[in-house]
Amino acid sequence: MAGPGGLVLSPEPQTEAGQQLRLFLEPKWEAFQQDAMVVKGSYRALAREIGYANPDDTKPVRECIERLWKVSIIAQNGRKRQGFRLLSEYASDEQDGKLYVALNPLIARAVMGGGQHVRISMDEVRALQTDPARLMHQRLCGWIDPGKAGRVELDTLCGYVWPEEANPEAMKKRRQTARKALAELAAIGWTVSEYAKGKWEVKRPATPTVTLPNPHGNSPQPPR
User: 135: domain CATH number?
Assistant: First the structure.
């Protein structure tokens, strides 16, 4: 969602539309005084951003946004609590494909570069060929910083993709798939090496080596 242009949604919006979006976000406790963000774009642009093979088929994207809109979050850090919807009430126009989504304060801080968050290269995501590789990439980005390396067991990587338990035969197939996913990571510039049987060292590149055209800007406007 950080691909399309965004507008900062302050705690006290000046417009009626902004006030309504803020109300629908349902901020509570500490979140009440934090900035949110309104993202303006289109279903087609979002489909291209996440790497859909057919960006003209926007139904899956619409359905995903609707599912996210139904999720509420309570985040606690020490004595501080924040509560809000994952996404605010969204407005869209299916005829021309326009899309407007309000993002909660935690996501807004990540988009604007504040607070602790994980950066994931969408060029790398689009370059990966399989869902297991994308899931593994997402989880590894969560704990390996750019330019750093980490060690992980093959079965742990399998758990990133398939959290449920499996019989020995199924686990054998999962390990084979996980090894192929590691090869995909190597193909986009990550360094992977098996230093012991079933144990891998994975290094994330300091900067993504995959470069794909990005039709969107990504610069939020200053708070209003």
Answer: 1.10.10
Amino acid (1-letter code) at residue 156: T
Angle of helix 168-187 relative to helix 154-161, nearest 10 degrees, comes to 90
pTM of the prediction? Answer: 0.58
Asked whether residue 116 is domain-assigned, the answer is no
Q: Which domain holds residue 163?
A: 122-203
How far is residue 30's CA from residue 81's CA, in Å, rounded to a whole number?
6
Q: Please write the tens of the pLDDT for every residue from 35-55.
A: 556 667 777 887 777 777 676
Backbone angles phi, psi at 202, to 5 degrees: -120, 125
The 10 Å CB-count burial string (b at 16+, else e) for 160-182 is bbbeeeeeeeeeeebeebbeebb
Same-domain check for residues 136 and 106: no
SS3 85: strand
**Backbone φ/ψ region at 38: left (φ over 0), alpha (ψ -120 to 50), beta:** beta
| Residue position matching structure tokens 């976000």 | 25
Q: Which residues of the chain have pLDDT under 70?
A: 1-39, 53, 55, 75, 77, 80-86, 88-98, 103-117, 211-224
Query: Does residue 170 sit within a domain?
Result: yes
